[in-house]
Write a structure and sequence with these properties.
Peroxidase, domain 1, peroxidase, two-stranded antiparallel ribbon, 2 domains, Peroxidase, domain 2, single chain, disulfide bond, calcium, heme
């Protein structure tokens, strides 16, 4: 859940925006669009074979969608007129792979028009992204509806890479997610890449006493400073979230224990006894991490607040 700007989490977010998806079911499309899941999987596989960054991008899209108005595909809507949509909010300008969802939707509309929501495509695509990266599979509950509202201003509600453990806890709890969910879902950072802007403050002018965040391993900080100098930075400079950034594994947790978490929010997981214990548990057991991640993904993905089935994921009907 990398983010380009730090945004203090606003506690005015009303939890009632998010209604847990009581109507979701595992066999939702069995009669109306039986090939839905295989159509989506094929679209993801085709895109990932051309661009290895696609799985991480799709997982991130789903997170960024669910954390604003529930998993309602509002992140896919395009800005229109004076309304600036979520995808154009500062934390989301580096989101990509929207075309993969478009490709899946186009194929689904050919087979079963007006049946499969863009929100369900995103939830299934996130699962497929994890599987393609060597991670666990799970049955995704389906039946989400697509939202009609998307505002760039609401993207300040996303957890920022600068968040402390208390800010992270507040952000997750306002969505009905626990400390266990926070640590498990943070493991999504095993995939992907971050631009320098998300961790720049940790490696230059950290505070009045330290130029570099003292919680960082010195060699790790030095390598990041060489990639992200204070001046004359290369366009799109940054670092992978972990060295095996296209493989879904538990290295993320091992790195945190070594002081090599990329974001302040990653390293912050060691700042509370409960989350620290979970980091240690997941670092020592890949199986424990996989199981927890699946449970938390199903829980997060079931928050839904949509109203319609969009014909085109980029525009409301």
């Amino acid at each position: 859940m990398a983010q380009l700007v730090a945004a203090f989490f606003s506690s005015v977010l009303i939890f009632s925006l998010f209604s847990p998806g009581k109507s979701l079911s595992l066999n939702y499309y069995d009669k109306t669009c039986p090939y839905a899941e295989s159509i989506i999987t094929n679209a993801i596989k085709n895109a990932a074979s051309e661009d290895k960054t696609v799985p991480a991008a799709l997982l991130r899209l789903h997170f960024h969608d669910c954390f604003i108005r529930g998993c309602d595909a509002s992140v896919l809507l395009s800005s229109k007129g004076s309304n600036k949509a979520e995808k154009d909010g500062p934390p989301n300008v580096s989101l990509h792979a929207f075309y993969v969802i478009d490709n899946a939707k186009k194929e689904l509309e050919a087979w079963c028009p007006g049946v499969v929501s863009c929100a369900d495509i995103l939830a299934l695509a996130a699962r497929d992204a994890v599987v393609l990266s060597g991670g666990p599979s799970w049955d995704v509950p389906k039946g989400r509806k697509d939202g009609k509202t998307s505002k760039a201003s609401e993207t300040t509600q996303l957890p920022a890479p600068t968040f402390s453990i208390s800010q992270l806890q507040q952000s997750f709890s306002q969505r009905g997610l626990s400390m266990d969910d926070l640590v498990a879902l943070s493991g999504g950072h095993t995939l992907g890449f971050s631009h320098c802007s998300s961790f720049q403050k940790r490696i230059h002018n950290f505070n009045a006493t330290h130029d570099v965040d003292p919680s960082m391993h010195p060699s790790f900080a030095a390598s990041l400073r060489s990639v992200c100098p204070q001046k004359n930075m290369a366009k799109n400079a940054g670092a992978t979230m972990d060295p095996s950034s296209t493989t879904f594994d538990n290295n993320y947790y091992k790195l945190i224990l070594q002081g090599k978490g990329l974001f302040s929010s990653d390293q912050a997981l060691l700042d509370a006894p409960k989350t620290k214990d979970l980091v240690s548990k997941f670092a020592s057991s890949q199986e424990a991490f996989r199981k927890a991640f699946v449970n938390s993904m199903i829980k997060m993905s079931s928050i839904n607040g949509g109203q319609e089935i969009r014909k085109d994921c980029r525009v409301v009907n």
